[in-house]
Design goal:
The chain has about 450 residues and is mostly helical. The chain has a single domain (about 10-450), classed as Growth Hormone, Chain: A (Up-down Bundle), CATH 1.20.1250. About 75% of the residues lie in helices and about 0% in strands. It is built from 21 helices and no strands. The protein has helices at about 10-45, 50-65, 70-85, 85-105, 110-115, 115-145, 150-180, 185-190, 195, 200-210, 215-225, 230-260, 265-270, 280-305, 310-320, 325-350, 355-365, 370-385, 390-400, 405-420, 435-440. α13 runs antiparallel to α14 (about 280-305).
């Protein structure tokens, strides 16, 4: 029997693209609406008795704490995704995220139920972290494993687009609530709840769309042959632990800078330190999400032309160049400076995010691929984005200057670039179960290159 290959029609490819984009957009809308609210209102509503500065740190910390549970979500979803299938886990994680987000929208505040309020808030955020940890791997494998070998970069960018779109939707909804529907005190009283409650509708739409997509052809062939690993996580760490570490460090270089905006730090800094209007800042964040969307999409196409690795290196070079200027612009340029800073951040982010799905998928063997990509992504998120907003806030408060934050961003960017140089580009490597031996060798510069096929040429 020949190995599974993607032979879907253009119509089926478009359906898969639509399903992965819509699903990840909804998932990340739910995740980012929390991060946006953490920087704007949660300090006042759930942590105010701790004092203004400590309350903000605690609020931002809840954004990061959820990341600690993303590896657990990745372990669970990776195991069952490699055993039961990609599509099943996509539906489960979508529903879990939606339920947690909706419940946050009806959660009483500290003034109403006391210490139980922040505890319940944290528990629901943990459920969001579990869902986010498991969702990404399934979405990218559904896209990449359905795609022709010479189009995996652009196919892998489809679920990646859900992140900037989710951030755009979250920022836009919050801006609408703060500036039009519930300005001023009304936003603190009830307006912040509306974006969370909207998740009920979005989850229903996403559920229907994801249920309509066929299972990945790679997993379908694995299941047909009965080649599922009984405990894929053990096989992953026994033979490929070094890949998990290196690939996770690649994502650290992207995630730390990314959570300057999506984690709420830069938004809160522009409002609290520079005195910019809250709604105006949220509109700027929404604009940045559009730039991030475009650069991510472009990076997916670029990765099919010049390779995943080269695209990453270009993106990391840009990130390193802007680590200091972004704060100079915000500190001296007012609203225009904020827009310029966000454009610089979003361009570099897209170049180091668009190729990620294809590269991760081509690193790990078929039978443990869901576990590999999910756990790697979750570990990278913990080491990179999880506490980046809180660390940045602590650096700002302890030094009184953003220079320390810029050094932090530069060092993590260089770390990501170094890890990128340790991995090989594997564009076009067969993804099916017949090629597991080839997939298991040659992913790093420390192993023989002869085991890796030449990249598939662009047609």
């Amino acid at each position: 029997m020949t190995s599974a290959v993607a032979t879907g029609t253009p119509t089926s490819q478009r359906r898969i693209a639509f399903a992965t984009i819509i699903g990840t957009t909804i998932e990340w809308y739910d995740f980012f609406i929390y991060a946006t609210s953490a920087g704007l209102v949660f300090a006042q509503l759930f942590f105010e008795p701790a004092g203004k500065d400590i309350a903000l740190l605690l609020s931002l910390a809840t954004v990061g704490i959820s990341f600690l549970f993303r590896p657990l979500g990745a372990f669970l979803a990776g195991h069952f995704g490699d055993v039961l299938g990609r599509r099943t886990m996509l539906v489960i994680t979508l529903v879990l995220m939606g339920v947690a987000t909706t419940l946050i929208g009806v959660l009483p505040t500290f003034a109403q139920i006391g210490i139980a309020a922040p505890i319940l808030l944290l528990l629901l955020r943990v459920l969001q972290g579990l869902s986010a940890g498991g969702e990404w791997g399934g979405a990218v494998l559904m896209a990449v494993e359905h795609a022709p070998a010479d189009r995996r970069g652009r196919a892998g960018s489809w679920p990646q687009l859900g992140v900037p779109l989710g951030f755009l939707l979250a920022s836009g909804m919050t801006a609408l609530m703060t500036g039009v529907i519930s300005p001023g005190a009304a936003y603190l009283e009830w307006g912040w709840r509306v974006p969370f409650l909207l998740s009920v509708v979005l989850i229903f739409v996403g559920f229907v769309i994801r249920r309509s997509v066929e299972e990945s052809p790679v997993f379908a062939e694995i299941a047909e042959r009965g080649k599922q690993k009984q405990v894929p996580i053990i096989a992953l760490f026994r033979r490929h632990w070094h890949l998990v570490i290196l690939a996770a460090l690649v994502f650290v270089g992207n995630g730390t800078l990314g959570y300057m905006t999506t984690g709420g730090f830069l938004n809160n800094y522009a409002i609290a330190e520079q005195g910019l209007d809250r709604t105006v800042v949220l509109v700027a964040a929404a604009f940045a999400a559009l730039v991030w969307f475009c650069s991510t999409l472009f990076a997916g196409y670029l990765a099919d032309v010049i390779g995943r690795r080269n695209t990453f290196l270009i993106g990391f070079a840009l990130q390193a160049l802007v680590a200091f200027p972004i704060f100079w612009l915000v500190n001296t340029g007012g609203l225009l400076g904020l827009y310029m800073a966000l454009v610089l951040i979003s361009t570099g982010l897209g170049l180091t995010y668009g190729p990620l799905a294809a590269w991760y998928s081509e690193i790990f063997p078929a039978s443990i691929r869901f576990s590999g990509v999910s756990i790697t992504y979750a570990v990278g998120a913990v080491l990179g984005g999880a506490f980046a907003p809180m660390i940045s806030q602590m650096l700002l408060e302890s030094t009184g200057t953003t220079a320390a934050v810029s050094w932090y961003l530069l060092l993590t960017t260089l770390l990501g670039a170094a890890a990128t140089l340790c991995l090989r580009d594997r564009s076009g490597i067969p993804l099916g179960p017949d090629h597991e031996a080839e997939q298991a060798r040659g992913a790093t510069i420390f192993t023989p290159y002869e085991s890796v096929r030449e990249p598939v040429a662009q047609h």
